[in-house]
Request: fold
Amino acid sequence: MTPQTLLGHYDDGRLWPVAPSQDASFGMEQAYRDALAVRELRMARGETPRGFKIGFTNRGIWQRYGVFGPIWGTVYESTISFCDGLGVVSLKGTCQPRLEPEAVFGMKATPAKNASLAELFDALDWVAPGFEVVQSHLQDWKFQAADTVADGGLHARLLVGSKVPIGEIASSATQLNAVFAAANVNLIQNRKVLESGRGANVLGGPLMALQHFLKELRACPGAPDLLPGDVITTGTWTDAWPVLPGEQWTADFSAPLSRLQLVFE
Reply:
């Protein structure tokens, strides 16, 4: 499929007729070229990139989905929203949507080349609880890794909750990693706890996931760099759960993150 075709299916919420990976020559390199071409098409029609999503950082779900390493995609002004703890998110136009509770970073500076964890920590501005709505344009979420990249990293929506300045949580990368290693979340649907997860699930912690992503981003030909003001959601602490309009979901995070609730329409 061409980038124009990929964007058309995204806009319409339609399933793909065939997986790009059925072509033996289609791999990760081509998938990122296509994803970046779709990004250019979206920018050309007036959409503004706001940052990135990192996917498949939770090793616990790799076997379930048949994807055995992280991927990334672009988050847009049109797909992100902010709230103080309760938000409303539309599922209109999404395709087989699912929900993931995540930690979201905001950047205050572009990290140094080959940034250490300490340098990456210094480039952070805030952290917040987040809900990412992910989607797949392949039936029943059956795909290869390259398909998920061409599918925009599976990104559909991002709800960001109350921001906490990094300096209020930790004074070093080591301390931040320790805080998130001990953090957990209960994912609740209509008062029923469906699953619990930990911050350590995402490659050992959100900061570790961010460092991995930055290396991959800068190794990708044609990819933009991480910029001040960018928002990065770092991967789900639980499995991704199917969602429907009318449902209410809660991510009950332990400190330093706060509870985040949303209603789907």
